[in-house]
Amino acid sequence: MFSYSNNGCTVRTDGAVLIVENALTKRVFALKNGMLLTKYILDKETGYVFGRAEDESGSFDAEISVMFDDDSGRTKRHLMINVSSQDGFGRNVEHVLRLFDDSPFISVNRRVFGMPIKADIGKEQEFDGVEALYKSDESDTAVFDDICDVFSLPKAHLKAKSVRLFDKTDRNDTLVKEDEQLIYSRQNYACEGNILILSDYISGVSLMVIKDAPTHLSSVGGCGVDFYIRSGLLSVVGTGFDGSIENGASLYGSIAGIGKTEDIEMLYKRYDNETALGDKNRRTFVMSNTWGDRSRDASLCEEFMLREIDIAHKLGVDIVQIDDGWQQGVSANSIRGAGAWSGYYDMDESFWAVNTERFPNGLKPLIDRANEYGIELGLWFGPDSSNDFANYKKDVRSILSLYRQYGIRHFKLDSVNFTKKLGEENFIALMKAVQEETKNYVVFNLDVTAQNRLGYVHEKNHGTIFVENRYTDWGNYYPHNTLKNLWMLSRYIPSRRLLFEVLNNKRNGDKYEGDPLAPINYTIDYEFASVMLSNPLIWMEMSGLESGDADALSKISKVYRIHRDALWDADIKPIGSCPDGTSFAGFEAICKDGSVYVLLLREKSGMGEYEYHLSKDVSGLNMSLLISNDENAQVSPIGKRIVFNCGKDFSYLFAKLS
């Protein structure tokens, strides 16, 4: 019998089951043929048992070890449980479970040493095998390598909500799609997505399961299903196990937690915050990048970037990011001629040296100017995807060289493309190697605009997510669509992990002639306000701004910088209606000290008043109006509601109640 307890977390065996628990939850596992299977999960607040608390005969036949871990400083300190066993094919199998003392969510990841076993069966027969494995005490039942996790479901009235998250945002502009239906006991249920919420709508308790993987668009070895319910069992499907790794493959895993239905999404975002601590400053930031004006790398040179840094200081920018073109090598996006998206070192071993024609003095003059203002410099970098990132150690050396020579610690990672699990693991090894060498001083900005990449929930503790490219030059930038994507994602992903863009809305008005939702109809500070609860990205050549717009950005940026520390670990959720250009949308942020921020935005609605519903009663709190672009705007808090009055379309208001 194994037993360990520390800091409110307990791990123990009881007969044939493993019990993992803290003050909020208890999860009970059986181990069969090298695979952990969830028997039930207990919500200690309500006493609700999700699953079937059936007796298991025998003993728990595995080696168990525990330790406290913080993933080299990238997560909050937590309990890590290692469970080592063998499956029926003689392969060594390791499960890693992670438990935080203040969260009902527990993650499970599996590593298999050996080649995948691909039985010549269809998907239905595979789930037959899962059912037999779960219900049988026989040890010769085959484990199928497409299964990430298995849960027993209660005999209850269940409603399923599947959530598909979309990356490859150059081609996708609705980044969250939800589907709900009641679960019928005699019907099989299958869906794609990163998230499944199963709610006992009679009891008001939900199980939330997150597939710890890239999106369904980008996962390697995708099988067209991510969650499958049959015969009282929920399987998380599609491990990415493809035989490309010989020394032990890390399979896609799962994160699962239980709680009140009204709280479960917020509880997951709190867990997400603990597992992705972000930059050492523990605050959001304003970043600039000149690529949004579509001149690509045409303007890049020392003189141009010095001007950009000067203006960045006025606008309150924290990080000036130099996109593609600073380097000696030529990418496929450059105006300098034919380039490539991979195989960089085959083209030029010095591909990632600083371009001395554009920057004859290196980057030092830019670093010196930025340091005068307290601004940091960031760089675009394209890891070499060729041969499953076989050159990732060279990429590590290239990034570390730039860090050591110039102190650059913010790198946007782009042009990434996975085709096999080996490529994924090498890319992740790249990031970990750099961060461990620099004690996490270097952080990454992960682009999810194209190709197969990590997405929103997988390996999320390396930095922030560069969500989308939009351009007035192409007529595809609309402020309401950018707001919509932040609004929708923020329900499931902490907004502090996302970057969303602010463009120079005075450019390319002819591309939108006669369009009532054209960017030019907005004020530029409204654009900033609409993405202010993420990390605002000043996506333009700032030297092209009109002076009045620069002043407006400077004013709202100052307000943002004053309050961003309080918002860092706040519970932020979308309120109002989903933005479509004609709605009232907004955000509510509940801070740990009990204060509440509200950001309210009126699109082209034609209405002067709208009532927002809040999750917290704000009665008795004093309200401070922080900034608005409508001098007549007013808010009236009434219990768990707040009424927004304003005199014009495309107006916003940011206020604090404390």
Give the secondary structure arrangement, pairings included.
Layout: E1 3-6, E2 9-14, E3 17-21, E4 25-32, E5 35-43, E6 48-51, E7 63-69, E8 78-86, E9 92-99, E10 105-113, H1 123-135, E11 147-152, E12 158-165, E13 176-182, E14 189-191, E15 195-200, E16 205-212, E17 227-230, E18 233-237, E19 249-250, E20 253-260, H2 264-275, E21 287-289, H3 302-315, E22 319-322, H4 344-347, H5 364-373, E23 376-381, H6 386-389, H7 392-406, E24 410-413, H8 421-437, E25 443-447, E26 463-466, H9 479-489, E27 498-502, H10 524-530, E28 535-539, H11 547-567, E29 571-576, E30 584-590, E31 596-602, E32 609-613, E33 623-628, E34 634-638, E35 641-645, E36 651-657
Parallel strand pairs: 21-22, 21-28, 22-23, 23-24, 24-25, 25-26, 26-27, 27-28
Antiparallel strand pairs: 1-2, 2-3, 3-4, 4-5, 5-6, 7-8, 8-9, 9-10, 10-19, 10-20, 11-18, 12-13, 12-15, 14-17, 15-16, 16-20, 17-18, 29-30, 30-31, 31-36, 32-35, 33-36, 34-35
Helix pairs in contact: 3-5, 7-8, 10-11
Task: Give a brief rundown of this model.
This protein is of the alpha+beta class and 658 residues long. The chain is 19% helix and 32% strand. The protein is built from 11 helices and 36 strands.
Separation of the first and last Cα atoms: 51 Å
Q: Report the strand count.
A: 36
Summarize model confidence as the mean pLDDT. Answer: 95
**Beta fraction:** 25-35%
SS summary, helix count: 11
